[in-house]
Design a protein that fits this description.
Elements: H1 5-12, H2 18-27, H3 29-43, H4 52-57, H5 64-73, H6 79-83, H7 96-111, H8 124-146, H9 149-152, H10 161-165, H11 168-198, H12 205-217, H13 239-266, H14 279-304, H15 312-338, H16 344-361, H17 369-390, H18 401-404
Length: 415
C-alpha cells in the first residue's frame, strides 16, 4: 500500500468531489480544519515542527473543542505551510495556518462574555478603531467641558498636578471599572474554554512550569528547527519572535509601572507626576518604547509577509490590536515628554481615554489570544506529561479521560 493511501481514504469519506468539495470545505472553518487535520494526521510529515502536531497525533477524530484547542495552540509560524506537499496549488489545498486563524477567531466569539458581544469579533478592526476614536474624542470634550482652562492648560510639574487636572476619584473609577470588567469577562471566557478543552483535568506544577516557559519564551515560533518563522517564504527569520517579545514585555513593564506608582501613592504618600529617574517613570518609559518597537515591527512583518497562509477575516483583529497598543504607548510617551508644557492636560485626558478603551476592548480584541494560547499550552504540557508517564515501565493505565486521548473514542479501554 502506498504512503498516499491513508490520505486518499480520508478524502473518499467526503460526500462531494472536485469544485463542489472545495466550495463546501471553505464554507465553514471547522469543516476545513477537520479535513486538514485528518489529512495531516495521515501524513505526519510536520510532527516535530511545533506543539500542534504532537497534540494532533493523540487524536483520531476532531470535535469542535479539539479544533479550538489546536487552533489556539498554533502560533502561526508557517513552517508547516511551506513544508507541506499538499499546500496550494495542490488540489488538496492544505493551509493549516490560515484555517487555524479562522478557527481561533470563531473560538474568541464562542467563548466571549457577555455572549451578545461576541459578534464584535466579526468586525473587530472597525469596532476597535471606532472605540479608540470615540474614547479620544469623549476624553478631550469632557476635559474641555469640566476642567477649568487655567488648570487644563498649565504645566504638570509639581506633585499632585495630574490630580488637579483629572480628579483622583474619576481616574480610579474609570480605570478600576474598565479593569474589573475586562478581568471578569476574560476569566469567564477562559473558564469556558478550559471546560470544553480539558474538562476536569488535574493540573500539575510541572506542567504549569513547562507551559509558562513555552508562553514566555515563544518557543513555538521557532518552526521546529530553531531558526524562526517563515514569514515571507521558505527562508527563516526570528524577527516576529523578537518583536512579539518587545511588545509583550513592554506591556508588562507598563503594567509594572502602574503597580509601583500605586505603591508610591498609597503607601509612600508620593503623588504623581514623579521625577524622570523614579522607578515608575523608568518602567513606563522603557515599557512604552518596547510597545512601540514591538507593534511597529510586527506591522512591518505583516506588510512584508506572504498573505497566502493568513486569514483576511482575522487581519482586522490583528491590526486593531497593534494600533490600539501603539497609540496607548505613544500618548503615554508624549505625556512624559510634554508634561512640563501647556499640552499636559489634554495629553493626560487623551492617554486616560486610550487606556480605558484598551481595557474595555481586551475581551473583544486580539489581546485575548494570550489567555487562550496559554491555556492551550498548559493542556498540551499536561498531555505530554501524561504520555511520558504512560510510556514509563510499570505504569498502570488509568481509566481517566487523559489516558483515553491516544485511543479511538469509539473503543475506550475497559474498566
Amino acid at each position: 500500500m502506498s504512503s498516499a493511501d491513508p490520505i486518499e481514504a480520508v478524502l473518499r469519506k467526503a460526500p462531494l468531489t472536485g469544485c463542489q468539495l472545495r466550495e463546501a470545505r471553505h464554507a465553514d472553518a471547522y469543516v476545513e480544519a477537520r479535513r486538514a487535520m485528518e489529512i495531516c494526521n495521515a501524513c505526519r510529515y510536520c510532527e516535530g515542527f511545533c506543539a500542534v502536531f504532537p497534540a494532533m497525533t493523540r487524536r483520531r477524530d476532531f470535535a469542535d473543542a479539539d479544533l479550538n484547542y489546536l487552533a489556539n495552540l498554533c502560533h502561526g509560524c508557517r513552517a508547516c505551510f511551506y513544508s507541506c506537499q499538499y499546500a496550494p496549488p495542490h488540489e488538496f489545498g492544505i493551509n493549516v495556518p490560515k484555517v487555524f486563524a479562522e478557527v481561533r477567531l470563531r473560538s474568541y466569539e464562542q467563548y466571549c462574555w457577555p455572549k451578545p458581544l461576541g459578534r464584535l469579533f466579526r468586525r473587530n478592526g472597525s469596532i476597535v478603531a471606532s472605540a479608540m476614536a470615540a474614547g479620544t474624542i469623549v476624553s478631550v470634550l469632557l476635559a474641555l467641558w469640566l476642567i477649568d482652562g487655567a488648570v487644563l492648560f498649565q504645566p504638570a510639574r509639581h506633585p499632585g498636578a495630574f490630580y488637579a487636572i483629572v480628579p483622583y476619584w474619576i481616574m480610579m473609577s474609570l480605570a478600576g471599572a474598565a479593569s474589573l470588567f475586562a478581568l471578569t469577562s476574560v476569566t469567564i471566557g477562559a473558564m469556558a474554554f478550559w471546560r470544553d478543552v480539558a474538562g476536569r483535568q488535574q493540573v500539575h506544577a510541572r506542567s504549569v512550569r513547562a507551559a509558562m516557559y513555552d508562553a514566555l519564551s515563544l518557543r513555538n515560533l521557532d518552526g521546529g528547527a530553531g531558526q524562526g518563522c517563515n514569514d515571507r517564504d521558505e527562508s527563516y527569520s526570528k524577527a516576529r519572535r523578537y518583536f512579539h517579545h518587545a511588545m509583550f514585555y513592554g506591556f508588562a513593564l507598563c503594567f509594572a509601572a502602574t503597580c509601583v506608582a500605586t505603591v508610591y501613592d498609597h503607601i509612600l504618600g508620593r503623588k504623581a507626576p514623579y521625577d524622570f529617574w523614579s522607578i515608575p517613570v523608568q518602567l513606563g518609559l522603557w515599557g512604552g518604547i518596547g510597545l512601540l518597537v514591538g507593534t511597529s515591527g510586527l506591522a512591518w512583518v505583516k506588510v512584508r509577509g506572504d498573505p497566502t497562509p493568513t486569514s483576511a477575516s482575522a487581519a482586522g483583529s490583528d491590526n486593531a490590536l497593534l494600533i490600539l497598543l501603539a497609540l496607548t504607548a505613544l500618548t503615554g510617551l508624549l505625556l512624559l515628554a510634554l508634561r512640563g508644557t501647556a499640552a499636559a492636560g489634554i495629553l493626560l485626558a487623551v492617554h486616560l481615554g486610550n487606556v480605558v478603551t484598551l481595557f474595555i476592548a481586551i475581551p473583544y480584541s486580539k489581546m485575548i489570544h494570550g489567555i487562550y494560547r496559554s491555556a492551550a499550552l498548559l493542556y498540551s504540557a499536561l498531555e505530554s506529561d501524561s504520555e511520558t508517564r504512560r510510556s514509563s515501565p510499570g505504569y498502570a493505565v488509568p481509566t481517566s479521560r487523559d489516558a483515553r486521548l491516544a485511543l479511538p473514542r469509539q473503543s475506550p479501554p475497559s474498566e
